[in-house]
Amino acid sequence: MDILRIILQVLLVLSSFFLIMSILLHKGKGGGLSDMFGGGISSSAGSSGVAERNLDRITVGVGLVWSVTIIGLGLLVKFS
């Protein structure tokens, strides 16, 4: 059980880091904090390119890995 807990904790740290980085890489959509800090100055026509859609998919995938890891650690702690 200890090796499983270590693997899940390492996976949690890595997925948390990649989730933060992938969220920060997204472009601001406007109307929020991104406009306040100058993100609305170079706004495009609202079209989403291939890179933005791939980044969306990566973010959702990493978010799912993060969620499953949290649930797994919770179950491991509960039944230990």
Q: Which parts are unreliable, with pLDDT below 50 for 5 consecutive residues or more?
A: none
Q: What integer value in Å does the Rg equal? A: 17 Å
Structural class: mainly alpha
The total strand number stands at 0
**Helix-strand string:** HHH
Main location: membrane
Family: Belongs to the SecG family.
GO molecular function, one term: protein-transporting ATPase activity
Protein name: Protein-export membrane protein SecG
Written overview of the protein:
There is one protein chain. The chain has helices spanning 2-24, 33-36, 50-78. With 80 residues, it is mainly α. The longest helix has 29 residues, at 50-78. The chain starts with a helix and ends with a helix. One of its GO terms (cellular component) is plasma membrane. It is found in: Cell membrane; Membrane.
Key words describing this protein structure:
0% strand; 80 residues; mainly alpha; 70% helix; SecG; transmembrane helix; 3 helices
Briefly, what is this?
By secondary structure, the chain is mostly helical. It has helices at 2-24, 33-36, 50-78.
Topology:
Blueprint lengths: L1 H23 L8 H4 L13 H29 L2
Helix pairs in contact: 1-3
